Amino acid sequence: MNIPIVSLSDAGKSYNDLDVLKSVTMQLNQGEVMGLFGHNGAGKTTIMKLILGVISPSRGKVEVMGMAPDSKEAWHSRSKVGYLPENVSFYEQLTGLEVLSYFTKLKGFTNKKAKKQAIDLLEQVGITHAMKRQVKTYSKGMRQRLGLAQAFIGEPKLLLLDEPTVGLDPIATRDFYKTVDQLKSNGSSVILCSHVLPGVEQHIDRAMILSTGQLLAMGTLAELRQQAALPVAIKPSGLNGSVANDNKLNRFLTANCPDTLMVPEQEKLTVLSQLLNHEGLADLHVESANLEQVYQHFLSLTENSLQEPLLQVKGATS
Amino acid sequence: MRQIFTVANKEFHDGLRNRWLISITLIFALLSIGLTYFGAAASGAVGVASLSTTVASLASLSVFLIPLIALLLSYDSFVGEQESGTLLLLLTYPLSKSQLLLGKFIGQGSIIALATLLGFGASAVLLYFQLGDIEVLTSFSIFIFSAILLGLSFTAISYLISLSVSEKSKAAGFALITWFLFALAFDLALLALLVGVEQGISQNGLTQLMMLNPTDIFRLVNLAGLDNSDVNGVLSVAINASLPQEQLIAALLAWVVLPLTLAIFIFKRKKL
Fold it and tell me: Do B92 and A76 count as a contact with CB atoms less than 8 A apart?
């Protein structure tokens, strides 16, 4: 039985009376990529800080590689953890190479090796041409790449990336995901926070959706889809409105998209075979609910249920 | 230990890059050479003034300058990194808070120490060649040593400020107030106490009170050994009841160690 890289059991964090994070239980295994989604203030950064050991949990237990990350024993495992903060501006007056060498040395590399490692990493993120320039001359995308290079120091076993693709152009984003896939195949585990949902799907194994410090849903994308029971969109073409006259099919049509059938996942195949019987069917477009829709679904669920506890809190404080 | 050295090295190079070292050295050198040669101008003569006059004027000027420079150099060490997000990042590294703080202290402290040594040392050497008196070197080495301690003390104090506030501009404000309180207001208050309250305070009590201010300890260290004629104000009262030199130096050293320890304590409890 291999030990999970990260395990949170009923972990929570409060500042004074404010629960920033209610109780969260999760595990991250070796070589797994977890997406962490939620809007601002949902507790994503708090979870990351707990895992990094920068703050200690108010309740419950946090373990990283079998140790509490805020303890003294975990000291050495810190060099195996990479972190990209959401908003970081590196020392502006230093050059990119100097910044990266500094961080590499702090991760425990000797002076000589640090410089080589730094140059290799800068090459990996594609900013070797600017490594002798001061960071203040860097564009937003270059700064982000520098931050990523910093997170990749020392082939980390665990990577925590807060909004890694912000400011990156499409090619750099593709390169970034390539690196993530590569790290994953080397056995690294990754936790990825993002607002930009399209494009993330195929790179994550599981997703966690958070809202106001509460875990709303967790699982693989397929599991989440099933849980959300979101319909599959089937778009036939070449039928010229004969679907509307078909008694078995027209109940799946909705008013706002008259050409598209919204079919529950379990009836997908029946509907498809019925559609195939129609003459004149030219093409079929089948689309499962994407991450964004799943995310929206879970958020809309809580928006209704959250109203009540909010009112209770108000009543309690007044 | 290596982590401390890495941080210290970076801070020291920052000091070189920002031209801090060269500017502080130049300020100190010009000031001390100027005072050495023209210190006697007030009494009508241009040329090398007497040793005690020189050290007295240097000490009275340094007492304003050194704390100001130290505060300026270090007030944003932590709050600045906190604002740019690198503080949080550094703390996820295998680097403890006390290592980071001590590293910064060694790096920035070296800038101050080196500038003091070079700047004032230049005029010490110059004066030594002019006067050919070995006493020049001894009194200057005490002066330089205590000036370094004063600088380190205010570096530690500025860490306290930098760790206690959450905005850089606030830290700058507090640094200015701290400087004003220690370098100016404290002495005025002492003087008021001395003059205003009859039999309120003994000479001994006054000296004890002065231990609460590192700038006053620095003054006592440097002026106690000199002719009384060069010293006036509260100091001349205190000097008569002065403590031995070693005790004064120890007190100044405590003013380095205590704020530094307190800064580590505050840093450890700081919410990030």
Answer: no
